[in-house]
Write a structure and sequence with these properties.
Largest sheet: none
Number of strands: 0
CATH class of the largest domain: Mainly Alpha
Number of helices: 4
Distance between the termini: 61 Å
Radius of gyration: 19 Å
Structural class: mainly alpha
Shape: flat
Order of helices and strands: HHHH
Helix content: over 70%
């Protein structure tokens, strides 16, 4: 037997998930870097599966990079709303958020090298 509160919670979750997907789709459409990161993630996961390498570190790294890119996009939108004109603090906020994406991407690259490098070298060598 299902309670009314449970059904309501489920509907709220579905509605929230719809908003989240809208944000992901918007970011995919307007941010070239997000599209590149999506395809890099697909390549990394495919390579890990093909090489029978551990998948967990690759998936976690990809999720981190994509999540940070989504946060960067959100922060840029909020900064643009709050400060439509150029302002040094707005620039600092955007630059710091972009820096977070760079750090996450470099970390993911290192994880990819550590996890995928050895089996790839064995295959090629």
């Amino acid at each position: 037997m299902r309670s009314e509160g449970s059904a309501l919670s489920w509907r709220r979750w579905i509605r929230s998930a719809g908003f989240a997907w809208a944000g992901i789709i918007h970011t995919y459409r307007v941010q070239a870097n997000f599209r590149i990161e999506i395809w890099a993630a697909v390549l990394a996961v495919t390579l890990a599966l093909a090489l029978r390498a551990p998948l967990s570190p690759i998936l976690i790294s990809c999720a981190l990079v994509l999540s940070v890119e989504l946060l960067n996009t959100a922060l840029e939108a909020v900064v643009d709303l709050a400060s439509p004109g150029w302002h040094p603090l707005a620039k600092l906020a955007k630059d710091a958020a972009a820096g977070a994406v760079l750090v996450a991407s470099l970390g993911a690259l290192l994880v990819g090298l550590v996890v995928l490098g050895p089996p790839l070298l064995r295959l090629l060598g």
